[in-house]
Specification:
It contains seven helices and seven strands. It is α/β, with parallel strands linked by helices.
Protein backbone atom coordinates (compact mmCIF):
# COMPACT_ATOMS: atom_id res chain seq x y z
CA UNK A 1 0.00 0.00 0.00
CA UNK A 2 1.43 3.39 -0.98
CA UNK A 3 1.38 6.08 1.69
CA UNK A 4 -1.02 8.95 1.15
CA UNK A 5 0.11 12.47 0.35
CA UNK A 6 -0.75 13.52 3.92
CA UNK A 7 1.36 10.71 5.30
CA UNK A 8 4.35 11.63 3.14
CA UNK A 9 4.00 15.25 4.25
CA UNK A 10 3.88 14.31 7.93
CA UNK A 11 6.99 12.15 7.53
CA UNK A 12 8.86 14.99 5.82
CA UNK A 13 7.94 17.42 8.63
CA UNK A 14 9.09 14.90 11.23
CA UNK A 15 12.47 14.50 9.50
CA UNK A 16 12.97 18.28 9.42
CA UNK A 17 12.12 18.61 13.12
CA UNK A 18 14.57 15.87 14.08
CA UNK A 19 17.29 17.48 11.98
CA UNK A 20 16.75 20.82 13.65
CA UNK A 21 16.94 19.26 17.11
CA UNK A 22 20.20 17.51 16.23
CA UNK A 23 21.65 20.74 14.82
CA UNK A 24 20.66 22.89 17.78
CA UNK A 25 21.49 20.52 20.64
CA UNK A 26 25.34 20.57 20.38
CA UNK A 27 25.35 24.36 20.04
CA UNK A 28 23.46 24.83 23.31
CA UNK A 29 25.92 22.57 25.11
CA UNK A 30 28.89 24.43 23.66
CA UNK A 31 27.55 27.77 24.87
CA UNK A 32 27.35 26.70 28.49
CA UNK A 33 31.08 27.31 29.31
CA UNK A 34 30.93 30.67 27.51
CA UNK A 35 28.13 31.83 29.80
CA UNK A 36 30.10 30.79 32.85
CA UNK A 37 33.21 32.53 31.55
CA UNK A 38 31.30 35.77 31.01
CA UNK A 39 29.97 35.65 34.55
CA UNK A 40 33.45 35.09 35.96
CA UNK A 41 34.83 38.01 33.98
CA UNK A 42 32.10 40.32 35.23
CA UNK A 43 32.70 39.41 38.87
CA UNK A 44 36.50 39.57 38.64
CA UNK A 45 38.43 42.22 40.56
CA UNK A 46 38.90 45.46 38.57
CA UNK A 47 42.24 46.02 36.85
CA UNK A 48 43.64 49.38 37.93
CA UNK A 49 46.99 49.26 36.14
CA UNK A 50 48.79 47.48 33.32
CA UNK A 51 50.57 44.17 34.04
CA UNK A 52 53.90 45.68 32.98
CA UNK A 53 53.63 48.40 35.64
CA UNK A 54 55.28 46.24 38.27
CA UNK A 55 56.80 47.65 41.47
CA UNK A 56 60.29 47.23 39.96
CA UNK A 57 59.32 48.99 36.76
CA UNK A 58 57.68 51.86 38.64
CA UNK A 59 60.41 52.32 41.26
CA UNK A 60 62.67 54.70 39.26
CA UNK A 61 59.64 56.67 38.05
CA UNK A 62 58.39 57.02 41.61
CA UNK A 63 61.79 58.22 42.74
CA UNK A 64 61.84 60.86 40.01
CA UNK A 65 58.28 62.02 40.65
CA UNK A 66 58.86 62.23 44.42
CA UNK A 67 55.17 62.57 45.23
CA UNK A 68 53.91 63.48 48.67
CA UNK A 69 52.70 60.54 50.77
CA UNK A 70 49.08 59.54 50.46
CA UNK A 71 46.87 60.56 53.41
CA UNK A 72 46.62 58.05 56.23
CA UNK A 73 43.55 57.16 58.31
CA UNK A 74 43.03 59.61 61.15
CA UNK A 75 41.08 59.53 64.37
CA UNK A 76 37.74 59.96 62.62
CA UNK A 77 36.24 56.67 61.43
CA UNK A 78 34.94 56.60 57.85
CA UNK A 79 31.21 56.71 57.24
CA UNK A 80 30.20 53.25 55.94
CA UNK A 81 27.45 54.94 53.90
CA UNK A 82 29.82 57.33 52.12
CA UNK A 83 29.95 56.87 48.32
CA UNK A 84 33.68 56.05 48.44
CA UNK A 85 33.34 53.56 51.30
CA UNK A 86 35.04 50.27 50.52
CA UNK A 87 37.29 51.63 47.77
CA UNK A 88 40.85 50.41 48.28
CA UNK A 89 43.39 51.73 45.78
CA UNK A 90 47.13 51.91 45.27
CA UNK A 91 49.08 55.02 46.23
CA UNK A 92 50.84 56.21 43.07
CA UNK A 93 53.78 57.60 45.02
CA UNK A 94 54.92 54.46 46.84
CA UNK A 95 52.63 51.56 45.93
CA UNK A 96 51.06 51.31 49.37
CA UNK A 97 47.39 50.47 49.86
CA UNK A 98 44.93 53.28 50.52
CA UNK A 99 41.45 52.81 51.98
CA UNK A 100 40.05 55.94 50.41
CA UNK A 101 37.18 56.59 52.82
CA UNK A 102 39.38 56.06 55.87
CA UNK A 103 42.20 58.19 54.48
CA UNK A 104 39.92 61.15 53.72
CA UNK A 105 37.67 60.92 56.79
CA UNK A 106 37.65 63.87 59.16
CA UNK A 107 38.69 66.61 56.74
CA UNK A 108 37.15 68.25 53.66
CA UNK A 109 38.75 67.01 50.48
CA UNK A 110 39.34 68.11 46.91
CA UNK A 111 39.60 64.96 44.79
CA UNK A 112 40.74 65.49 41.20
CA UNK A 113 40.14 62.85 38.53
CA UNK A 114 42.66 63.03 35.69
CA UNK A 115 44.61 60.97 33.13
CA UNK A 116 48.08 61.25 31.64
CA UNK A 117 46.73 61.91 28.12
CA UNK A 118 44.35 64.71 29.18
CA UNK A 119 45.54 68.14 27.96
CA UNK A 120 43.28 70.22 30.26
CA UNK A 121 44.52 68.10 33.17
CA UNK A 122 48.08 69.12 32.36
CA UNK A 123 47.10 72.76 32.78
CA UNK A 124 44.99 72.18 35.87
CA UNK A 125 47.26 70.00 38.02
CA UNK A 126 49.83 72.75 38.73
CA UNK A 127 46.90 74.99 39.72
CA UNK A 128 45.74 72.35 42.22
CA UNK A 129 49.29 72.10 43.54
CA UNK A 130 49.31 75.85 44.11
CA UNK A 131 45.98 75.67 45.89
CA UNK A 132 47.10 72.75 48.06
CA UNK A 133 50.22 74.65 49.11
CA UNK A 134 48.02 77.59 50.07
CA UNK A 135 45.34 75.56 51.88
CA UNK A 136 47.76 73.55 54.00
CA UNK A 137 46.05 71.23 56.46
CA UNK A 138 42.61 72.81 56.05
CA UNK A 139 41.78 70.66 53.02
CA UNK A 140 43.11 67.39 51.64
CA UNK A 141 43.92 67.57 47.93
CA UNK A 142 44.20 64.15 46.29
CA UNK A 143 44.56 63.15 42.64
CA UNK A 144 42.97 60.04 41.12
CA UNK A 145 44.61 58.74 37.96
CA UNK A 146 41.85 57.11 35.88
CA UNK A 147 43.91 55.33 33.20
CA UNK A 148 45.68 51.94 33.56
CA UNK A 149 49.03 53.35 32.39
CA UNK A 150 50.57 54.23 35.75
CA UNK A 151 54.04 54.66 34.27
CA UNK A 152 52.88 57.52 32.09
CA UNK A 153 51.05 59.07 35.04
CA UNK A 154 54.26 59.24 37.05
CA UNK A 155 56.16 60.61 34.08
CA UNK A 156 53.61 63.36 33.52
CA UNK A 157 53.54 64.38 37.19
CA UNK A 158 57.33 64.65 37.16
CA UNK A 159 57.16 66.80 34.01
CA UNK A 160 54.50 69.04 35.54
CA UNK A 161 56.42 69.43 38.79
CA UNK A 162 53.31 68.31 40.68
CA UNK A 163 53.92 66.52 43.98
CA UNK A 164 50.31 66.04 45.08
CA UNK A 165 49.49 62.67 46.61
CA UNK A 166 47.47 60.44 44.33
CA UNK A 167 45.93 57.03 43.86
CA UNK A 168 45.79 54.76 40.82
CA UNK A 169 42.27 53.95 39.60
CA UNK A 170 42.55 52.65 36.05
CA UNK A 171 39.15 50.99 36.27
CA UNK A 172 37.36 54.24 37.17
CA UNK A 173 35.83 53.07 40.43
CA UNK A 174 35.97 56.49 42.08
CA UNK A 175 34.36 58.10 39.04
CA UNK A 176 31.50 55.62 39.19
CA UNK A 177 31.09 55.80 42.97
CA UNK A 178 30.62 59.58 43.08
CA UNK A 179 28.50 59.70 39.93
CA UNK A 180 30.97 61.76 37.93
CA UNK A 181 30.45 62.07 34.16
CA UNK A 182 32.77 60.25 31.78
CA UNK A 183 34.89 63.33 31.06
CA UNK A 184 38.20 64.64 32.38
CA UNK A 185 39.20 66.50 34.39
CA UNK A 186 36.59 66.26 37.11
CA UNK A 187 36.97 67.70 40.60
CA UNK A 188 34.93 66.15 43.41
CA UNK A 189 34.44 68.06 46.66
CA UNK A 190 33.88 65.86 49.70
CA UNK A 191 32.66 66.83 53.13
CA UNK A 192 34.60 65.62 56.16
CA UNK A 193 32.15 62.71 56.52
CA UNK A 194 32.65 61.60 52.90
CA UNK A 195 29.46 63.15 51.58
CA UNK A 196 29.75 64.47 48.04
CA UNK A 197 29.29 68.23 48.16
CA UNK A 198 29.85 68.86 44.46
CA UNK A 199 31.00 67.18 41.26
CA UNK A 200 32.61 69.74 38.95
CA UNK A 201 33.44 68.54 35.41
CA UNK A 202 35.52 71.57 34.49
CA UNK A 203 39.19 72.55 34.45
CA UNK A 204 40.35 75.21 36.88
CA UNK A 205 42.61 77.95 35.57
CA UNK A 206 43.78 79.45 38.86
CA UNK A 207 44.15 78.65 42.54
CA UNK A 208 41.65 81.43 43.25
CA UNK A 209 38.99 79.56 41.24
CA UNK A 210 39.60 76.42 43.28
CA UNK A 211 39.49 78.41 46.52
CA UNK A 212 36.16 79.95 45.53
CA UNK A 213 34.38 76.65 44.87
CA UNK A 214 35.84 75.14 48.06
CA UNK A 215 34.56 78.09 50.05
CA UNK A 216 31.16 77.88 48.38
CA UNK A 217 30.60 74.13 48.70
CA UNK A 218 32.70 73.15 51.71
CA UNK A 219 32.73 76.36 53.73
CA UNK A 220 36.53 76.41 53.93
CA UNK A 221 38.42 79.61 53.15
CA UNK A 222 42.00 79.22 51.97
Amino acid sequence: MRPSSAGRWSLAVLVVIVALIVAIWPRDRAETPTTGSTSATTSAAPVDRRPQDTPDALAPLRAEAALNPCPQPGVSPPDPQAPIAGLVLECVGDGSTVDLAAALAGRPAVVNLWAWWCAPCAEELPVLQEYADRAGDAVTVLTVHTDPNESNALGRLADYGVRLPGVQDGSGRVQAAVGAPAVLPVTVLLEADGTVAAVLPRPFRSADEVAEVVREHLGVAA
